[in-house]
Amino acid sequence: MRAIVFDPNNRFTVLVTRLAILFGVLFLWWLGTDQKWLSPFFFGDPVGVARRIVEWFVTGSVFRHLYTTLLETMLAFAIGTVLGLACGLWLALNPFLAVVFDPFIKAMNSMPRLIFAPIFALWFGLGIWSKVALGVTLVFFVVFFNVFQGVREVSPTVLSNTRMLGANSRQLMRHVYLPSATSWVFSSLHNAIGIAFVGSVVGEYLGSEKGVGYLILLAEGVFDINSVIAGILVLTVFALVLDTAVSMVEDHLLRWRPVAGQTVAASA
């Protein structure tokens, strides 16, 4: 008997499978709480969670919290990405400085950055900038190491041939180093979006006046598990939306990149 093999490139099949898994999990969750196999006090109620999300958006009470969290996330993402890109290029193109700063970078990267949240709150207060600073420390290293590795992976043969054609430093940067680093950068941005959310929400959770993390903290304080789960789901959806946006920008900017199958066929 032949096993059924599904085509991973069939978007409809993939979508149906994903929806089946999602609704299957939701059904099991509802069944568990409805039959009292799971305590709604600890695991929440899917109907109650959905009702809470609808209530937030209908009344508009969630928008100011969501706006704050998204603003913190995007600022942390943008600043951390720019700093990581600049420092990664700078050290990758300066081998001596890369060796000098190597132990310092490794030491800073090994630190659990979340412990800096109280320090940033002391420095910048309970406004958005303490959360942005925490998010930047998380995003920076993800982007930095990918850019650094991407530039170091440039083929020496390509560099030699480009220099033989008379390319100057600016042309090398534009036509060789940046294209080489671009794929690495976009692969890191998918993780950076999620990490920026983590930094923002954790910062709000530890001390803030508004934000979805603050909303979750308030719900936790009164043991409202439905609101806690609702806040987590809202954050998850927006994180997926931002990740999809990054993928669309990546596909547009990396149209020149050959597909693996096409590369193999061409070489054959």
Explained architecture:
- Keywords: Cell membrane, Membrane, Transmembrane, Transmembrane helix, Transport.
- InterPro entries: MetI-like, MetI-like_sf.
- It comes from Caballeronia cordobensis.
- The protein is mainly α.
- It has a single domain, classed as MetI-like (MetI-like fold, Orthogonal Bundle).
- Helix content is 80%, strand content 0%.
- It has 12 helices and no strands.
- Helix 7 runs antiparallel to helix 9.
- The radius of gyration is 23 Å and the shape is globular.
- The two termini are 35 Å apart.
- The C terminus is likely disordered.
For CATH, the homologous superfamily is named as MetI-like
CATH class annotation: Mainly Alpha
Average pLDDT? 81
Q: Please give the count of helices.
A: 12
Strand count, sense and barrel status of the largest sheet are: none
Structural class: mainly alpha
Question: First CA to last CA: what distance?
Answer: 35 Å
Choose one word for the global shape: globular
Q: Predict the CATH topology.
A: MetI-like fold
Residue ranges: pLDDT <50 for 5 or more in a row? 260-268
Number of domains: 1
Order of helices and strands: HHHHHHHHHHHH
The beta-strand count equals 0
Helix content: over 70%
Rg computed from alpha carbons, rounded to a whole number of angstroms: 23 Å
CATH architecture call: Orthogonal Bundle
β-strand percent reads: under 5%
